[in-house]
Structure formats: structure tokens, C-alpha cells
Design goal:
alpha/beta; two-stranded antiparallel ribbon
């Protein structure tokens, strides 16, 4: 089975330069979570509501009439009378939602992980609170990519910053500690915390690989099954 979220994540790096300051990348990846939930067919309620157009992916990532910080991907009851958008090659329509049933937040740690880890954890935990402010029953999902590459090249405008293993640590030197902090401090706040371990150097020809493709697919598939079970129970 092809999992569209994993393919979308791969596409951020493989064969192309990854630009970490593009703010819409998290939204793009998270939107495919709902396609995969539909595709596995483990929740009759979710499938029926998507097919009927009653539940949609939120185009603005905010709920109508309720103030909450935006997440990267939100899914819930469509606002009645408001037309939804059909996206080519996607089964889940886009539109405005009245409440959040499933909220996803995406973070990608490609380089300088320990330097930014406190901010990342703070963003993740705060986002859970915002999801549950919209709906206390919301299923909260974290999608966190952690790079394990032996070297990495980042960009700031026209300037390049290669890792050197000393001042600028290689991703593989920081990955284990970053994951440990994420698991201890952020994971307990979420219903599902999906770690995506990968290797990408961000240098031509821009190769990409999973640390373990089999393990990544199995862990992601298991998380999808659990999310569907929770959806059946909560909604």
C-alpha cells in the first residue's frame, strides 16, 4: 500500500532543495494524513462522513467562531451551507470546519536540532492545547521528522551553511538526543506521536532515504489504525 503522507514527506527532499523557511510545507504533509486514514478504511464513520462531504480538511486551519492557534492539518465537521473544494486526486474535500475532530502538527528537524529543540517542543505542546480548546475530544497527532544524515547543507537566502561536525554538528550527531527529548517532553501530550526518521544531505542530486523504510511504514500504519479506532470511539 502506498501511504501518501510518507510519499509527500519524501518529496520535500528527494531530487529537490529543501527550504526550511517555507511555512506551508507542514500543511502540505499533514493534509495527506486524512487521505491515508480514508484509504485504510478502518473507520466506517470517517469514511461515510468524508464520502458525504460532511467532514473536510480545513483550508484555513481555524474553526469558525472559535479562536485557536492554527495547526498544520485540521479535520472536522464541515460548516453547513458552505461549499467545499474538490482537490484533484484527493478523496477528502477542503473547506471550512465548525469543530476540530483530528488535529495534526508537523515539525521537521533537519539540522541544528538541539539548538531549536526547546522551541519545537514548546510549539508542539502549545498546539495540543489549542486543538483541545476547539474540541476537548479532538484527536491530536504529531508528525515529527528527524534527520539522521552524516552531513547536511542548509540555505539562508544565497548563503550556504554546511555542517562540519564541530561548530555545526552533523544531523546524525544530534538525532538521538533530539528524539529522546521529544519522546520525554512532547510525546505524552499527544494521542499519536509519529517519528519519521530519515536521511537527507540536501546536496545535489538531493538523495533521500528512510533510516528504516520497513519500520517507518509499519509504525505509521499502526498509528493510522489507532487513530481510526479513536475516531470510532469519540465521534
Amino acid at each position: 500500500m502506498v501511504f501518501r503522507l510518507l510519499e509527500a514527506f519524501r518529496g520535500l527532499f528527494e531530487g529537490t532543495k529543501y527550504e526550511h523557511r517555507r511555512s506551508n510545507l507542514g500543511d502540505y504533509v499533514a493534509s495527506f494524513l486524512f487521505e491515508d486514514l480514508f484509504a485504510i478504511g478502518r473507520s466506517a464513520k470517517l469514511v461515510e462522513r468524508i464520502e458525504a462531504g460532511r467532514s473536510v480538511v480545513n483550508t484555513a486551519n481555524v474553526t469558525v467562531g472559535r479562536h485557536a492557534r492554527r495547526g498544520d492539518g485540521t479535520f472536522g465537521d464541515a460548516v453547513p451551507g458552505v461549499a467545499s473544494i474538490v482537490v484533484p486526486d484527493c478523496r477528502v474535500h477542503r473547506g471550512r470546519i465548525a469543530s476540530i475532530d483530528i488535529g495534526a502538527e508537523t515539525k521537521i528537524l533537519a539540522k541544528a536540532m538541539i539548538k531549536q529543540i526547546d522551541r519545537v517542543i514548546n510549539d508542539l505542546t502549545k498546539q495540543v492545547a489549542h486543538f483541545r480548546r476547539s474540541n476537548p475530544r479532538a484527536i491530536c497527532v504529531a508528525l515529527v521528522g528527524v534527520n539522521h544524515a552524516r552531513q547536511y547543507l542548509s540555505f539562508e537566502g544565497h548563503r550556504e551553511f554546511p555542517t562540519d561536525g564541530r561548530k555545526y554538528k552533523h544531523p546524525v550527531q544530534e538525532a538521538a538526543e533530539a528524539e529522546d527529548r521529544l519522546v520525554r517532553r512532547a510525546l505524552p501530550e499527544f494521542d499519536e506521536f509519529i517519528l519519521l526518521r530519515f536521511r537527507a544531505a540536501n546536496t545535489p542530486p538531493y538523495p533521500f532515504e528512510w533510516v528504516s523504510e520497513t519500520e517507518t511504514r509499519v509504525e505509521y500504519a499502526a498509528a493510522l489504525a489507532r487513530i481510526c479506532r479513536e475516531y470510532e470511539a469519540r465521534f
